[in-house]
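Quick start: load a record and inspect it. Here is sn-glycerol-3-phosphate transport system permease protein UgpA:
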Amino acid sequence: MRKTVFNGTALPLLLLTPQLVITAIFFLWPAGAAIWQSLLQEDPWGMSSQFVGLRNFTEVLAEPEWRGAAWNTLIFSSSVAVLAMGTALFLAVQADKSIRGANIYRTLLVWPYAVAPAIAAVLWLFLFHPSIGLVGRALNEAGVAWDYKLNGNQAMLLVIVAAAWKQVSYNFIFFLAGLQSIPRSVLEAAAIDGAKPVRRFWTIILPLLSPTAFFLLVVNLVYAFFDTFGVIHALTGGGPGKATETLIYKVYVEGVQNVNLGSSSAQSVILMILVIALTAVQFRFIERKVHY
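Running the structure step on this input writes:
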């Protein structure tokens, strides 16, 4: 195998410069500004500010509303990750079979990933709106009291399903690639030994897919924490009664609606720390069970 050897450090640094600049502009600088702003108390117009140290953090952590949003985030993120990954794995296993039109099915299953979160939410709104939605009206006509605008549990269920549906295609691509990388000779040998399809899945396929599943677990939790704002905003707006208000949505409420910039920045910093800590825990404990 040929290796590229650089004479000096000028060229490697030059090649890294575009990525370093993008990281500095779109991550390091906004993160630093948020951390600094979380230590300030500002008026809504940004005309004056006062350094208050960690007061914003203590006030946020003492708020019952923030703890409620944290609980909503725990339920929402875990449910989205499990539902999106479980559905994608099932579809990938089915699409990996030798059936007529398999390539067409695979293409159709990838399409939803191209839909923007807000557009995906509007699609589900037209399906499950209690007055104009096809499914929502059918449920009410069938005697099921369906109105996610008034029922918090129904609203949470709807945003979970909508957010998971948006992420299924992404997971499907990786699971299908992982399935196709498993040597067929291994599965054929297990079948010759008398292992049934279910047993082959649990003892051979799933362990060999564990690196892919671990990667997707991290990605799906980050997605549920950050990238689902558009789904929640378009579907429920955090309601009813803050039943679907997650931590990322509460950052928006405090910063944009209430114009409490210090509190909003403190909440964003706390959320960033939580996601980093959660990712570190996954790499520390869950990765041990991954078979590479």
